[in-house]
Specification:
Layout: H1 5-24, E1 34-35, H2 38-54, H3 57-73, H4 75-86, H5 91-104, E2 114-118, E3 121-129, E4 132-136, H6 142-155, E5 159-163, H7 169-185, E6 193-196, H8 201-209, E7 215-219, H9 222-229, E8 234-238, E9 244-247, H10 253-265, E10 277-281, H11 282-294, E11 298-300, H12 303-313, H13 329-334, E12 346-350, E13 366-372, H14 375-386, E14 392-396, H15 400-410, E15 414-417, E16 437-438, E17 444-445, E18 452-460
Parallel strand pairs: 1-6, 4-5, 4-7, 5-6, 7-8, 9-10, 9-14, 10-13, 11-12, 12-13, 14-15
Antiparallel strand pairs: 2-3, 3-18, 16-17
Bound molecules: nicotinamide-adenine-dinucleotide.
Nicotinamide-adenine-dinucleotide binds next to α8 and α9.
């Protein structure tokens, strides 16, 4: 059989890839990052992590650069798939989410070692990898969380095994495969990131209990955070929120109205950071609502319509109707026979302070607005509805004392002043992004350094040259 040049190139490429795989500890030439069994994923991850540590830092940087680029190159397909598979969010906003994660997740610069010299010699502090990490990811951000976690965890020299949300498995596996290919194509080890083909609560438990998994990271609701914190391992919990936005009489009301409408409607309110209820000082409440309507994107419900829609959003026990989470406002309002134009992104309504949607993380573009007599009452209510999640709060005000008083009272990980909540995760705001915001365990906006352990090396005397 004659072999042409193209066949020969293919054979050479295959041999190189096989060599790469075997040196990385991979078991199958065409391995794409998806494992059937947790045990295989762990064995492969251990070898891959060792191989990563054997590579120079410049190589790690090149791998991360390629991972960022592959997200940007495939963004349209990924965004489309995420909305199609989960039914949650909006295509244009998923594009923004993926760009944010690809470009504003810190890389190896986040783990720069520190050195200190003095009379007694030299001390070097290094941020060492923890080893193999098990990551549980949510349905709400199947691409964003995998991108952010993968870049952060590899930057700090770890391997990661994902147990994605079962209802987002197609999207999660697709982004995983793309990132895995970018790693291997750029000389990184196969199996450095991987996912379980059919993730279940059992596979999550297996990962959590596996003796060779060194750290757990849960991004999701309260039960999964509780599960990893009960594992006996080092765990990072990024849990639920119910972010209040407080508006006082000194705020630039037009700006506040625009920020709230944009912030609460991004991705149909499924970001854990999104504004979930508005608390406004009586004096400016009418103006705020008027300006929100004037954005052309917010539809004001009558009290009757609000009562009806609450019944379809929550069941008799007050639990969120998951079939409506993250849907367009038109889909939700259609359930009560209300047809509104495509220009609307959000429904707003006036609510009493005891209204269930004020106290529930609805993750739907339907936003309650509560009037309060004054700023003191607003601060008290805002802190109460946040419910100790330590997640996110937003305030619009030009009074520094008021801003400080609310920030102190509410105690959240993210506090946004005079902007949409998403500015707090780096979208139109300063600072890096994180799609694992660790309020319960206190690491805050996670990044490469979060997934490390600190190691100190001391050289006694004799190092300085002066
Ligand atoms: P979820 O808690 O239902 O699922 C998250 C992940 O945990 C999934 O992979 C799921 O399979 C797994 N899981 C759930 N219960 C488990 C258990 N008992 N044991 C083991 N694994 C378990 O969350 P979701 O509906 O996918 O996502 C929405 C929630 O996540 C919201 O509450 C939102 O606020 C939160 N969230 C938080 C952050 C953050 O950074 N703090 C980011 C995104 C989403």
């Amino acid at each position: 059989m004659a072999i042409n040049e193209q066949d020969l190139a293919g054979i050479i490429q295959k041999v190189i890839s096989e060599l790469n795989n075997s040196s990385a500890g991979g078991t199958v030439v065409d391995f794409d990052g998806i494992h059937q069994q947790v045990n295989d994923a762990v064995d492969c991850a251990i070898k891959a992590q060792k191989a990563l540590l054997a590579l120079p830092m410049s190589k790690r940087d090149a791998i991360i650069a390629a991972m960022r680029q592959t997200v940007l190159d495939n963004n349209e397909m990924l965004s489309d798939m995420a909305v199609e598979e989960t039914g949650l969010g909006r295509y244009d906003d998923k594009l923004r989410e993926n760009i944010l994660c690809a470009t504003k997740t810190p890389g190896t610069e986040d783990i720069q070692p520190q050195a200190k010299t003095g009379d007694h010699g030299l001390m070097l502090l290094e941020y060492a990898p923890v080893g193999v990490i098990g990551a549980l990811t949510p349905i709400t951000n199947p691409t964003g969380t995998v991108i952010h976690n993968s870049i952060s965890m590899i930057a700090s020299g770890n391997a990661v095994i994902f147990n994605p949300h079962p209802s987002a498995i197609k999207t999660s596996s697709t982004i995983l495969r793309l990132l895995h290919k970018a790693i291997v194509d750029n000389g990184g080890p196969a199996g450095l990131i991987s996912a379980i083909a059919k993730p279940t609560l059992d596979s999550a438990r297996e990962i959590m209990e596996h003796p060779k998994v060194n750290m757990l990271v849960a991004t999701g609701g309260k039960p999964v955070v509780k599960a990893v914190l009960s594992s006996g391992k080092k765990a990072i919990g990024a849990g639920a929120g119910n972010p209040p936005v407080l508006v006082d009489e000194t705020a630039h009301i037009r700006n506040a109205a625009e920020c709230i409408v944009n912030g609460a409607s991004i991705n149909n309110n499924i970001f854990c950071t999104c504004e979930k209820e508005v608390i406004v000082v009586e004096e400016v409440a009418d103006t705020l609502i008027k300006f929100m309507i004037e954005t052309g994107k917010a539809y004001k419900l009558s009290s009757d319509e609000a009562a009806q829609v609450t019944k379809v959003m929550l069941n008799e026990k007050g639990k969120v109707n998951t079939k409506l989470v993250g849907r367009n406002v038109q889909v939700i309002l259609e359930k009560i026979g209300l047809i509104i134009g495509e220009q609307y992104r959000l429904a707003i309504f006036e609510a009493d302070r005891d209204h269930p949607l004020v106290w529930t993380e609805q993750m739907m573009p339907v936003l309650p607005i509560v009037r309060v007599k004054n700023i003191q009452e607003g601060i008290e209510l805002g802190a109460a509805v946040e419910q100790g999640n330590r997640h996110t709060a937003i305030m619009h005000s030009t009074n520094v004392d008021n801003l400080t008083a609310f920030a102190r009272a509410v105690q959240t990980t993210i506090f946004v002043k005079n902007g949409p909540a998403y500015a707090g995760i780096g979208l139109g705001g300063e600072g890096h992004t994180a799609f694992t915001i660790a309020g319960p365990t206190g690491e805050g906006m996670t990044s490469a350094r979060t997934f490390t352990r600190q190691r100190r090396c001391t050289l006694v005397e004799g190092f300085r040259i002066i």
